[in-house]
């Protein structure tokens, strides 16, 4: 039998190989997804996916329980379901909190840092409880054993008095060192100075000034008192208004109202009234130079002054 020509031979087709590689890849991918799903289910059902600790820092007047209640987050809540911004807004809504920071740290830790309004003073409430006065003018009750009385005490103030809030703002901007000798601050308004205040110091001096002058005048208060003590003067009234002056005595005899001194009529000044600072007497042998120093004009002789 004669063979076929070379040109007429049919080529031999190779046997197809099984597609095992592509099938194995699909199987491995399915197994991988299956195990990932199993692990995710186990993780979210385990304690690792839940909040195990809530750390609250920075609070001094607010209790941790009050902050935790406002945050509305408890141990055991899902870690990834807690929205830190929502928690921050809830904590910052507390009236004693100025700002708040909330962060999450894996595994299971929620950290809340609060920044309270500065404590600028204390006062005694109507029920006799001790209250801390904050920089925004609000007052909160504080436990007696936890907070030391290291700020001035406000007495005689009304909660609705706008000067009280202005005073709190002024005190919050004054460094604590300038207020170390201040023990009590009382309102002492007059016709000339609606925001006038009377300050009692631990060094037994009284200070007459205003809420507006306080931030500037308080800087020199320690120097004034030191100068007086070096001169063997251990008490008296410091008048810190447009000009600064010292009056002997404790300022008794004027009561809660300022004594008024009327200057005699003259062709230059006309009828004017000048305010005498507490501690001065309007008749007798009291000196008239102090009144002149506080008003910027020389006062009339004592026998010509008339007390209203």
Automatic annotation (TrEMBL):
Residue span of region Disordered: 246-308
Subcellular location: Membrane
Transmembrane segments: 27-44
Compositional bias ranges of the Low complexity kind: 276-298
UniProt-recorded name of the protein: FtsQ-type POTRA domain-containing protein
InterPro entries: FtsQ_DivIB (IPR050487), POTRA (IPR034746), POTRA_FtsQ_type (IPR013685)
Superkingdom assignment: Bacteria
Organism: Paenibacillus lutrae
Any single GO CC term annotated in Swiss-Prot or TrEMBL for this entry: plasma membrane
Main location: membrane
Residue span, POTRA domain: 49-117
GO biological process terms on file: cell division
Keyword line: Cell cycle, Cell division, Cell membrane, Membrane, Transmembrane, Transmembrane helix
């Amino acid at each position: 039998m004669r063979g076929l020509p070379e040109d007429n031979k049919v080529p031999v087709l190779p046997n197809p190989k099984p597609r095992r590689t592509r099938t194995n890849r699909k199987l491995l991918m399915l197994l991988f997804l299956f195990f990932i799903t199993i692990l995710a289910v186990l993780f979210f059902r385990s304690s690792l996916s839940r909040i195990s600790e809530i750390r609250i820092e920075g609070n001094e007047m607010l209790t941790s329980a009050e902050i935790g209640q406002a945050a509305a987050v408890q141990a055991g809540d899902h870690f990834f379901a807690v929205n830190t911004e929502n928690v921050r807004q809830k904590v910052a809504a507390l009236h004693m909190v100025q700002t708040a920071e909330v962060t999450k740290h894996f595994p299971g830790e929620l950290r809340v840092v609060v920044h309270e309004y500065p404590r600028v003073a204390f006062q005694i409430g109507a029920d006799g409880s001790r209250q801390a006065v904050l920089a925004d003018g609000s007052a909160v009750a504080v436990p007696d054993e936890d907070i030391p009385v290291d700020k001035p005490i406000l007495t005689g103030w009304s909660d609705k008095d706008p000067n009280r809030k202005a005073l709190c703002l002024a005190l919050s901007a004054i460094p604590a060192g300038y207020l170390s000798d201040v023990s009590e601050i009382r309102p002492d308004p007059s016709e000339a100075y609606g925001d006038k205040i009377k300050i009692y110091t631990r060094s037994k001096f009284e200070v007459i000034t205003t809420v507006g002058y306080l931030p500037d005048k308080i800087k020199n208060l320690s120097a004034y008192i030191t100068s007086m003590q070096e001169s063997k003067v251990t008490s008296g009234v410091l008048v810190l208004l447009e000009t600064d002056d010292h009056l002997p005595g404790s300022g008794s005899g004027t009561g809660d109202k300022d004594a008024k001194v009327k200057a005699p009529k003259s062709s230059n000044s006309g009828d004017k009234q000048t305010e005498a600072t507490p501690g001065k007497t309007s008749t007798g042998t009291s000196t008239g130079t102090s009144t002149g120093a506080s008003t910027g004009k020389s006062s009339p002789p004592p026998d010509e002054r008339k007390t209203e």
